[in-house]
Amino acid sequence: MSKLIAIGVDASGVNAVFKRLESKEQTKALRSALNLTANQARTKLSGQAQNTYTVKNAGFKKSMRISATSKYAVIRAEGAPLPLKDFKVSTRGNVVRAQVLKRGRLKPLVKDEIKAFVNNIANKHQVRKKDSKKGKAGSRVRHIAVAQREGKERLGIEAKFSNSTPVMLGSEKRVYGVVEPEIGKDLQDNLRMFIDKVMERNV
């Protein structure tokens, strides 16, 4: 799953000065301003997401890649849905509760009167094929998850997931929509800064 965030150029605020630059200088200033703005945006989006969701170590910033030209910059966020166990989860009492938003509350995980649980859902005979940070080759695999049995027959077990990193970062209500006005202001400020640098060198 992926999400694209595009940053376009509006040079109207600096148009008079911008036209006085040579073509190569215009291209360089635009590319530099867009690249800096995209990096600032990535940091702000990551910070806003971390302040919004209870997930730990989601790697918001690492999930975003930047590509920039002299006309636009693109931030591409990629990632799969995150396990619900990575968010705030409570096992107190006889019902497992989870909280995804920091401004939210713990909500009971019950569907069709079937309660969720936290346990090792890996196959009993599953072992590691090679050494890793989690254990040596041949050791038993443990996959702790918030899970729930499927249907009234209670036969299958389904791990519970929340939204993916791209969906959370792209949220108009909680993340991207909050940061977007700052991105536009940063671009104008950065464009003016790089134009001023060129003008100073040409004096």
The helicity comes to 25-40%
Task: Indicate the structural class.
Answer: alpha+beta
Described by strand count, sense and barrel closure, the largest sheet is: 3 strands, antiparallel
Q: What is the molecular shape?
A: elongated
Termini separation: 49 Å
Strand order of the largest sheet: 1-3-2
Number of helices: 4
Uncertain runs: none
Q: Which H/E pattern describes the elements?
A: EHHEEEEEEEEEEEEHH
What is the number of E strands? 13
Offer a concise description of the structure.
By secondary structure, the chain is of the alpha+beta class.
Key terms for this structure?
three-stranded antiparallel sheet; alpha+beta; 13 strands
Task: Please explain how this structure is put together.
The chain contains 4 helices and 13 strands. The strands form 5 sheets. A 3-stranded antiparallel beta sheet has the order 1-3-2. With 203 residues, the chain is an alpha+beta fold. Helices cover 33% and strands 25% of the residues. The protein has helices spanning 15-18, 23-52, 165-169, 176-202; strands at 2-8, 64-68, 72-78, 81-83, 88-90, 97-99, 107-108, 110-111, 114-115, 117-120, 144-149, 157-159, 161-164.
Secondary-structure blueprint:
Blueprint: E1 2-8, H1 15-18, H2 23-52, E2 64-68, E3 72-78, E4 81-83, E5 88-90, E6 97-99, E7 107-108, E8 110-111, E9 114-115, E10 117-120, E11 144-149, E12 157-159, E13 161-164, H3 165-169, H4 176-202
Antiparallel strand pairs: 1-3, 2-3, 4-13, 5-6, 6-7, 8-9, 10-11, 11-12
